[in-house]
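Final report, Chapter 2: Outcomes

The project's central promise was a pipeline that accepts a single protein chain and returns its three-dimensional structure in a standardized token representation, suitable for archiving and comparison. That pipeline is now operational. To close this chapter, we reproduce one record exactly as it appears in the project archive, with the input sequence first and the structure output second.
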Amino acid sequence: MSARTIKRVAVLAGGPSKEREVSLVSGKAAAKAVSELGYEMIFIDVTNNVPKLVRDLTDARPDAVFNALHGRIGEDGCIQGLLDMMALPYTHSGRMASAMAMDKPTAKRIFAQAGIPVPEETIVTRARAEREEVMPRPYVLKPLNEGSSVGVKIVRAGHNFPPLDDLGVAPDGLIMAERFIPGREVTVSVMGERALTVTEIKTERDFYDYEAKYATGGSVHVLPAVLPKAVFDRAMELSLVAHRALGCRGVSRADLRYDGEELYMLEVNTQPGLTPTSLVPEQAAHLGISFNALIGWMVEHAACDA
């Protein structure tokens, strides 16, 4: 759609996931930008009441939907499928790319097939992970389909098995155990067919967890990352390859670890945050793309798979 045809934009935020509060911050920031850009903005606080959401969208009659939801429902293909059925163009990736990126085992298989290095992993029940070693330490335990490092645990040498009741998984439910990659955490934003730049993330916490991501002072962003040029360029290349392999569109963000020799892809976030501490707006600003320009680009590239 061109700027002449998009006049009304519905911003979806909130949602029923564990990332609801972060989504509301992202959504309010996006809504402010949408209004300042001259679009008529309708803000919709999404809950698990699907009939109400359909009514809200039907009443709003938007030309495009800005999807500021994070986590399950908003990021895993569910909302995308609904919007496709309603023939409403929306920001970020479509339902298939969203579903594959959110499901960690599926995403890792796709990355590996595309030639992207990934840490070794195994899928186990939560009960087994709580009572026995599931791979050589150190390793990471994580839900199969959560974002923002929700529920992630590191099992280190000499540590007791961590409690896993906060993963939101039943004892006989499945989780991922993944080899822990020591070294440096880096991230790359992709905007359309362009990898923006590389940021190194430093934190005093065990790893770049939920608090490090969203709490003020939880992490330090080194932008651009101070890396050998070959490593910097490789991070950009792998992130773009991952974006394409999943079939992402709009904006995504790839998270990688660098152990001093190799870069490993951890995940691709198809709904990256737009909070004051978020990485995508920071990288865009570094390249001279204002927050409003970023949001405007995303609106103008809204699409659906109907």
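Archive annotation: The two ends are 15 Å apart (CA to CA).
This record, like all others produced under the grant, will remain available to the consortium after the project formally closes.
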